[in-house]
Design goal:
Elements: E1 4-9, H1 15-24, E2 31-35, H2 42-54, E3 59-63, H3 68-73, E4 82-86, H4 88-97, H5 102-118, E5 122-128, H6 139-158, E6 161-166, E7 169-172
Parallel strand pairs: 1-5, 1-6, 2-3, 2-4, 4-5
Antiparallel strand pairs: 6-7
Helix pairs in contact: 4-6, 5-6
C-alpha cells in the first residue's frame, strides 16, 4: 500500500469520495481528516456541512486552513493510521487571502511537501486540477492557476502514487 497518495481532478469529479474510500480500506486507525476549508459565507458553510455529513464518524477532524504542514507534523497518536488532506485548492486560496506573495506561497508548498514526505501516517492528499481549461482573463485567476499547478507538482512529486479523477473514476498517473 502506498504511503503517500495524491488525488487531483476537476470540480465534482469524485476526489474526496475516492480519498475517503481509500482511507477506509484496511485496518489503519486512527483516521484523520485534515480540513482546509473556512466557512466564510453561507454557501461555504453548506458545502462544509455536506462534506461532514458524508464523512464516516470514525474520522477525527483537524482544522488547518493555513498551517497545513504544522497540522501534519502534529498528528497525535504517534503518527499511526491514515490522514486525508482535503484540499490543497482551498489551502492555496486561504494563503492568497492572507496576502502572501508567490515566493512565500512557494515556500509554504515546499514546507508542505517536506511535512508530507516526513509524516508517519499514511497521507492521502486531495487537490483540484484547474489548469486544463482556457487561460483566465483575470490576473488573480491566472496567478491562482499557476500557483496551484506548481503546488500540485511538488506534492505529486513526493507521492508514491497519483490519480486523476474523471467522472468518478480514478485514472492512475503514477
Amino acid at each position: 500500500m502506498a504511503r503517500v497518495t495524491f488525488i487531483t481532478g476537476g470540480a465534482r469529479s469524485g476526489k474526496s469520495s475516492h480519498a475517503l474510500a481509500m482511507a477506509a480500506e484496511g485496518a489503519a486507525t486512527p483516521r484523520y481528516f485534515i480540513a482546509t476549508a473556512e466557512a466564510l459565507d453561507d454557501e461555504m458553510r453548506a458545502r462544509i456541512a455536506r462534506h461532514r455529513a458524508h464523512r464516516p464518524a470514525e474520522f477525527v477532524t483537524i482544522e488547518a486552513p493555513i498551517a497545513l504542514a504544522r497540522a501534519i507534523a502534529e498528528i497525535p497518536d504517534g503518527g499511526a493510521g491514515v490522514a486525508v488532506i482535503d484540499c490543497l485548492t482551498l489551502w492555496l486560496s486561504n494563503l492568497l487571502g492572507q496576502g502572501l506573495d508567490d515566493e512565500a506561497i512557494a515556500r509554504a508548498a515546499d514546507d508542505l511537501a517536506a511535512a508530507i514526505a516526513a509524516a508517519r501516517p499514511r497521507i492521502i492528499v486531495v487537490s483540484g486540477e484547474v489548469g486544463s481549461g482556457i487561460v483566465p482573463e483575470n490576473p488573480l485567476a491566472r496567478r491562482f492557476r499557476d500557483l496551484l499547478g506548481w503546488t500540485n507538482q511538488k506534492i505529486a512529486g513526493v507521492a508514491d502514487e497519483a490519480f486523476l479523477m474523471a467522472a468518478g473514476y480514478p485514472l492512475r498517473l503514477k
